[in-house]
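Exercise 7. Predict the joint structure of the components listed below.
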Amino acid sequence: MESKAVNKYAYSVGRVRALETKLLDRDKIEKMIDAEDAEAVLHILSETEYGDRVAEVKSAEEFEETLYRYLKRKYAVIKSFYPDPELVDLFTLKYDFHNLKVLLKSKLSDQRATLIDLGAIADVVPELMKGDISEISKKLPESYARAVERVLGEFNISKDPQIIDAGLDAEMFNLMFEFASKSEFLLKLLQMHIDLANIKILIRSKKLGKSKKFLEYALLERGGLPKDVLLKMYDGSLDTMTSELCKSEYEEIIADGAEHYKKDGSLLWLEKLFDDFIAEHVKKAKYITFGLEPLVGYIIANENEVKLIRTILIGKLNEIPSEQIKKMVREGYV
Amino acid sequence: MVEIGLGLALATLGAALAVALPGTGSAIGTRIVGQAGAGVATESPEKFGMILLLQALPGTQGIYGLLTGFIVIMGTGLLSGLQPVGAEQGLAILFACLPVAIAGGLSAPAQGMVAAAGVSLIAKRPEEVGKAIIFAAMVETFAVFGLLASILLLNGVL
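Solution:
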């Protein structure tokens, strides 16, 4: 088994190790956080791997889209030398499903959101936005088409627009499990993402006073926290729910996240804590010599880096003090 | 003219194993380092020199095996007039070849893994190349023990 992993991953792990040296280091990140304004952040970025992208834009406001283009290029490079190229798709599924959500919502409700030009169906979706809803499942790849049809079926019964989000999330995680089934490391990672999604659903539904039936549909299967346990918690108040959730491995995250939620009604802080927690899990990839873990670690490191730059830039554009930005910035992989 | 008997045949088998097993091991070991090295060199070609040094390390077992094989070839006169070798002596020569054959053949792929991990190390910290070499060289020790045992044993039986 071990030698199989060596055969398969020796080249790509070597390449990833060399590529990792080009990720932003702590020093650069600190400098960006302490920079005076968004222009100064771009100036720091111009000396890094992002240099070419910075040269393309005229102002910091334009840079967000450019970041997606940067990530798109990175995914393509990683895919070109990855021994299991389909594993890269596992990471771009979230953009596919974001685009599907935008698409379905634009047809079924009056919500408008921006498409992301990333993932397998990014080229098809803008065209579908213009067409009729019946066209959607015909023009999408089979697995997506089936997902869309199931969600549409459910929507036609309940007419609840939140079914679109909940249904597509469930479909997305099902597809992800298919991709991830080969690796314990990836399965654990998925479980954490599902737990986070479920906890968010639980808290939001409580706030909106959603029925238990909706929750039964919306809560995701296969997380570390079993669905029936979560459903049972929903009977109690928010406080009893958090104290129940604190009995899990996420004790500290939930205690801290719930406290912030009570103060400002936002789940952003909980999300940040979870991201840090997941980053800790991914850091283990550093100590694995051969296998897909270092490759997965590198993909996530790139995603986090882009998130981090976006957080800093948005912060600077909105004149948020450096201290506050520092609090929100996620732990990097390096 | 000495006829080729069972003794000489066994000695030949010993020499063949001493060359073939560590040689195969070294090929596997250097391949692993080469693959990881090619990955690093794709992004940072300037590290080629250090990578080559690490790739050479699991190659030494092949040399130890060849050396042992030559000692047997010279001792039995396979190149220049055959020496009479009894069946028991031939068996002893075969046994004497086993330490380098086994230790060399198995340590080379193992060393290749350590050296490939070392390649990852210098990808991030080229200044630590010395440490990467020391880690890989630790594995070398046991191949050297195999060679030493084989030479001493052959000294006694040839």
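Discussion. Residues 1-84+292-334 of chain A form a domain with the Topoisomerase I; Chain A, domain 4 fold (CATH 1.10.132.50).
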